[in-house]
Design a protein that fits this description.
Elements lengths: L6 E6 L9 E5 L2 E7 L5 E5 L13 E3 L2 E3 L6 E2 L5 E3 L17 E4 L2 E5 L27 E5 L3 H9 L4 H4 L8 H6 L1 E2 L3 E3 L2 E11 L3 H4 L8 E10 L3 E10 L13 E13 L2 E10 L5 H32 L12 H41 L1
Antiparallel strand pairs: 1-10, 2-3, 3-4, 5-6, 6-7, 7-8, 9-10, 11-18, 12-14, 13-14, 14-15, 15-16, 16-17, 17-18
Helix pairs in contact: 1-6
Protein name: Vanillate O-demethylase monooxygenase subunit
GO molecular function: 2 iron, 2 sulfur cluster binding; metal ion binding; methyltransferase activity; monooxygenase activity
InterPro entries: Cholesterol_7-desaturase (IPR050584), Rieske_2Fe-2S (IPR017941), Rieske_2Fe-2S_sf (IPR036922), VanA_C_cat (IPR044043)
């Protein structure tokens, strides 16, 4: 069961260049994305209403898409506007569409009640629209439920054991770091962690030379249902970064957006940004490779965890004090699901009426 009345990342904007028809499953629903000749992005069910063929295997014609099974042509509103060899088009020949927006180089889709879709509530990641921040967009597919991935990112202590040679974790990190009180938000949480007078992380040592001991900070903000935002960096030890002195500091910005594909698979859209001006392209490539290496360290743990838990649905997950962030995220999701379920009866009645009208139309077609 998924939260639906929220915005999800459906892809990177560059995935729709050159007339691409992108088929992607989101929340168990197969969806077609494309950009018409008027540059507007369309999201519609990736299933022709005639015989159920995939529209993503079709052909883009201006702002419309043609099913290449029997030639039906659909406009951006999902309405069939041409049936080869037939003048009259049954009114039921329509394909459902979804609210969709492009912001900060990302494609955002609303999977719930269209009347509630407000583009001003898109989570966004404004650094992607600021030219001084650069990075290489990435994508990974996980065979795991998205909440296990949220748990992973909400628990920074795992860095000490999973990522010692990439992100620079060590048992010392768990023992020596300090952190601000976790700030519970209506849609997530925020916390800042400090590791003072420590070594530079391995992934930064690849392109920063001659920096000795450093003070490291990580400000994490997570947003329900599955967004991870990180503002982080390193400053020469004792330089006063905790008081706001950024002189000599190296800063990064990270987004990881987890969009459920099914109950046991997830799309991960990620980017790691930097603002270095020298050797910019080399640093971008180095960062991307290092972060990908770190994500691949997480993947086998999370995917096997998924398999283990799936075999024993009755297994009860235990909590420690350090799990406060991930527990808050799960609580928020549970509350939103309850809210949507409470609103569901009326929507179900409305949908039933629509389905009845459609069935009557199909019978008369």
């Amino acid at each position: 069961m998924f939260v639906k009345n929220c915005w999800y990342v459906a892809g990177w904007a560059h995935e729709l260049i050159d007339g691409a028809l992108l088929g992607r499953t989101i929340l168990n629903e197969r969806i077609l994305f494309y950009k018409g000749e008027n540059d507007s992005v369309v999201a519609m069910e990736d299933r022709c209403c005639h015989r159920g063929a995939a529209l993503s295997l079709g052909r883009l014609e201006g702002n419309n898409v043609r099913c290449m099974y029997h030639g039906l042509l659909f406009n951006s509103a999902g309405t069939c506007i041409e049936v080869p060899g037939r003048d009259a088009i049954p009114p039921s020949f329509k394909v459902p569409t979804y609210p969709v927006e492009v912001q900060d180089k990302l494609i955002w889709i609303w999977m719930g009640d269209p009347a509630l879709a407000d583009k001003t509530t898109i989570p966004g990641f404004h650094y992607l629209s600021q030219p001084e921040w650069v990075g290489e967009p990435g994508y990974l597919h996980y065979q795991a439920n998205y909440q296990l991935m949220v748990d992973n990112l909400a628990d920074f202590n795992h860095v000490a054991y999973v990522h010692p040679t990439t992100f620079g974790g060590s048992p010392n990190y768990v023992a020596e770091h300090t952190e601000s009180p976790l700030e519970r938000l209506d849609n997530g949480f925020k916390v800042t962690k400090w590791h003072m007078n420590c070594d530079l992380a391995p992934f930064v040592k690849k392109f920063v030379k001659g920096m000795g001991k450093v003070d490291r900070w990580n400000t994490v903000r997570m947003q329900m249902p599955g967004y991870f935002y990180l503002e982080s960096g390193f400053s020469p030890a004792g330089n006063g970064i905790e008081k706001g002195n950024m002189e000599g500091a190296i800063s990064f910005r990270n987004l990881q957006a987890m969009t459920p594909e099914t109950e046991d698979s997830t799309h991960l859209f990620w980017v790691y940004l930097h603002n270095q001006t020298e050797n910019q392209d080399l640093i971008t490539r180095s960062l991307s490779a290092s972060i990908l290496e770190g994500l691949y360290e997480d993947m086998p743990i999370i995917e096997l965890q998924q398999k283990i838990l799936a075999k024993d649905p009755g297994f009860t997950l235990k909590s420690m004090p350090s799990d406060v962030g991930l527990n808050h995220m799960r609580w928020l999701v549970a509350q939103q699901l309850k809210k949507e379920q409470a609103q569901a009866p009326q929507r179900d009645k409305d949908q039933a009426r629509k389905d009845m009208v459609r069935s009557e139309a199909m019978a008369g077609a």
